[in-house]
């Protein structure tokens, strides 16, 4: 099983980024997917998840700014992040159950 994140980087406050997660080795359509993040010195946070049926859930502080989605045909999970704030700076991880990607850095400058 592999989950590989891409799309991170440096952006100014107020900007946007779209994280992508390429998944292999799982029955993609049957699995939920979750984005976590961890900032230096802070505990890990669940940012958003999407269930197999498409139901989504968001961390309160990103609700209305971030959108999680999935493309079952391409085995891809996405996290569209708009109106980014410096507080969103963290390493973002794509996960499904016990399986985790290596993470990708998102840095938002003020």
Write a structural description.
The protein has about 110 residues and is mainly β. It is built from no helices and eleven strands. The protein has strands at about 1-5, 10, 15-25, 35-40, 45-50, 55-60, 65-70, 75-80, 90-95, 100, 105-110. A hairpin with a 2-residue loop joins strand 9 and strand 10. The protein is globular and about 40 Å long. The protein starts with a strand and ends with a strand.
Write the layout of secondary structure elements.
Elements: E1 2-6, E2 9-12, E3 17-24, E4 33-38, E5 45-50, E6 56-58, E7 66-71, E8 76-81, E9 90-96, E10 99-100, E11 104-109
Parallel strand pairs: 2-11
Antiparallel strand pairs: 1-3, 3-8, 4-5, 4-9, 5-6, 7-8, 9-10, 9-11
Instruction: Tell me the radius of gyration.
Output: 13 Å
Task: Work out the helix count.
Answer: 0
Q: What is the H/E string?
A: EEEEEEEEEEE
Distance between the termini: 37 Å
Uncertain parts = none
Q: What's the story with the biggest beta sheet?
A: 7 strands, mixed
Q: What share of the residues does DSSP label as strand, in percent?
A: over 45%
**Can you give the helix content as a percent range?**
under 10%
Q: Shape, please?
A: globular
The averaged pLDDT comes out at: 97
Counting DSSP E segments of at least 2 residues, the number of strands comes to: 11
Question: Key terms for this structure?
Answer:
110 residues, mainly beta, 0% helix, globular
């Amino acid at each position: 099983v592999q989950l590989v994140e891409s799309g991170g980087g440096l952006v100014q406050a107020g900007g946007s980024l779209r994280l992508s997660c390429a998944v292999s080795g799982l029955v993609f359509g049957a699995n939920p997917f979750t984005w976590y993040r961890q900032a230096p010195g802070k505990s890990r946070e669940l940012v958003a998840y999407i269930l197999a049926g498409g139901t989504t859930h968001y961390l309160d502080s990103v609700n209305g700014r971030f959108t999680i989605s999935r493309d079952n045909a391409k085995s891809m999970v996405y996290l569209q992040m708009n109106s980014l704030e410096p507080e969103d700076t963290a390493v973002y991880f794509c996960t499904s159950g016990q399986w985790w990607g290596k993470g990708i850095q998102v840095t938002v400058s003020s």
